[in-house]
Amino acid sequence: MEFRLNAAPKPGKYKRVNPTQRQKGDINAKADVALKQRSMGLCELCGQTWAVQRAHLTGRKHIKHKTTEADLAHVCLECHDWLDKDPRGIQARRLIAIIVNHALLELESERKDT
User: Fold this and answer.
1) Closest CA relative to residue 59, chosen from 25, 10, 102
2) In the beta sheet, which residues pair with residue 75?
3) Based on CB atoms within 10 Å of each CB, which residue in 48, 69, 79, 84 is the most buried?
């Protein structure tokens, strides 16, 4: 019995078409500048301490587009921990995300009407 080598050519390198979840969650410089201007350096939740972190309102796992300043909150360490770890904070974060997304949809529909 004789075996013949019948090798098929390797396909070209695969290029990913859609960004990964990590890439969608990355905060670009434009969104970062807009977020810092919006908060003026103060925590957007408590308003009493300096904001040093950017919290995703819509988690990286659930985001369907590249992160914008509307997807973020500029917060202090304590408020960021509350948003991510406390059950009431998680509920609050989800509610804030729903409100922001609804407001953006309303603005978008108003712009289309005019």
Assistant:
1) 25
2) 53
3) 79
- Which tokens belong to 109? 């529909």
Residues 6+ apart with CB under 8 A from 73: 44, 45, 54, 55, 57, 83, 96
CA dihedral 106, 68, 43, 61 (to 10 degrees): 100
Between the alpha carbon of residue 47 and those of residues 1, 19, 28, 105, the distances in Å are 81, 34, 24, 27
CA trace torsion 44, 48, 52, 53 (10° rounding): -40
* Cβ neighbours, 10 Å, residue 29: 7
Half-sphere exposure of 31 (CA within 13 A, CB side): 17
The model's pTM is 0.76
CB 63 within 8 A of CB 21: yes
